[in-house]
Amino acid sequence: MKNVVFLSVILLGVLGFTFIEKEGGVMSDYVCDSNLSQFNVLAGKTGAPGEANCTQCHSGTALSGVGTNTLIFSGANDEYVPGQTYTFSLDVLNSNATGFQMTGLDNANDKAGSFTAGTGSNIQTSSGKEYINHSNASVSSWTFDWTAPATDVGDVTFYLASNKANGDNSTSGDDIYLSELLISAASSSNVEQLSALSNSDFNISFNASSNEINLDYIASVSGKVTVKVFNIKGEEITMKKFGDSSQGKNFNHLKLRRQLSTGVYLVTLAINSEYFTKKLFVQYN
Predict the structure, then answer these.
(1) With 50 as the cut, is the pLDDT of residue 17 above it?
(2) DSSP alpha helix (H) spans, the chain
(3) If you compute the radius of gyration of the chain from its CA atoms, what whole number of angstroms results?
(4) Contact (Cβ atoms closer than 8 angstroms) between residue 273 and residue 76
(5) What is the pTM of this model?
(6) How far apart are CA 41 and CA 132, in angstroms?
(7) Which of 60, 143, 151, 223 gives 271 a disulfide partner, CB atoms 3.0 to 4.6 angstroms apart?
(8) What are the chain's domains?
């Protein structure tokens, strides 16, 4: 029997996630690689319907990803526009040696959209489905892109399995965490609003000497600009309203009132009702 656990992480009131603990899937012939650093990742281990999960190779029980898997989707209101590209940010908390695998499926459990690998990740296909997984297990944080299907296919569910390895280069003593994230197709009214800028037009950097965050973005429309900073748990650290953006290039500087702890933060830029989120690493000299 499935145990269902809901976790809502609020980012500007638009980023929410549902995580579901699932049972192990089907078994088949396979060869397990005990060393994550060799990147021999088998496809079809996400815990999606009809699939196994990482416990097929790694001993232990599949656990709920609540409080461990932090998956951020850049689309506003957890919605996608057909053909548009979005960014995923994944952090597996409290882990150094980590692996993951994720797939996106429609309601018929068919492949939905396509991934573009980022640093430390790669893509493979199996049985008509596409999977993105780690290629570097010495980190516990990844960023990669997903391009939505060309047409409205309804809800898309992303199935994610992460492995918090103990680093002993064996398949024992590792913990497997399963999560799901469901996103929906944007309504026609929302599609008309999603035109301020693309996520690739939004860049941020941190200036340790002045203790401020620099924001550089290209807006295709003018609108009210608000910036919020969250820690990795989704807790708001600070917020500032910058007034109206101009069409074209914009530069804003968010001065922090106090020094932050070294680590990863989430910076969300809002233009009118459209939201864009990027990860920022803060470190002082």
Answers:
(1) no
(2) 188-193
(3) 19
(4) yes
(5) 0.60
(6) 10
(7) 223
(8) 3-189 (2.60.40.4060), 195-282 (2.60.40.3080)
